[in-house]
Amino acid sequence: MSKEQPAQSVGPAQQGGAVVVDADAELKAALAEAQQQASQNRDGYLRMAAELDNLRKRSQRDLENAHKFALERFLAELLPVRDSLEMGIASADTTAAGLKEGMDMTLKLLATALERSGVSEFSPARGESFNSELHEAMALQESNEARPGTVLQTVQKGYQLNGRLLRPARVIVAKTPDAAA
Question: How confident is the prediction for the chain on average, in pLDDT?
């Protein structure tokens, strides 16, 4: 039996060398697969990190806009108050100097409060081109002096909140006179 033992021990040793080569190939294939998986995981992580950063920036912008325009509806309701005060001042009698002075002071306070809140007023000048984004045409009026499509008169001032239109200026717009008249 001792003669067979060396023959048997030589056979598996040679086969063992082939098994080692196969194990190396398997390890290399497993390593390549693991590296590919790691690369995919890294790409996925980078994409998710970028998406999270974009979401954070978008949320920050939305929050800033919410703070910037939070008072929009409230301020829109205050504008008629300002208009009423302006009309009262315009129609105040000179004998009611105290009333006029009080209304002037109230109007100044309101104007300051609106200004601090980011509200700016604008009033189109006579002859300025009608701008449908900023103006609301209340009427068309024939005019020989003004070009058609220009502002003849501002009926009510317009207002913007931090550059966004809050209320358009209400205007009377010039049109070409009828030839029949």
Answer: 84
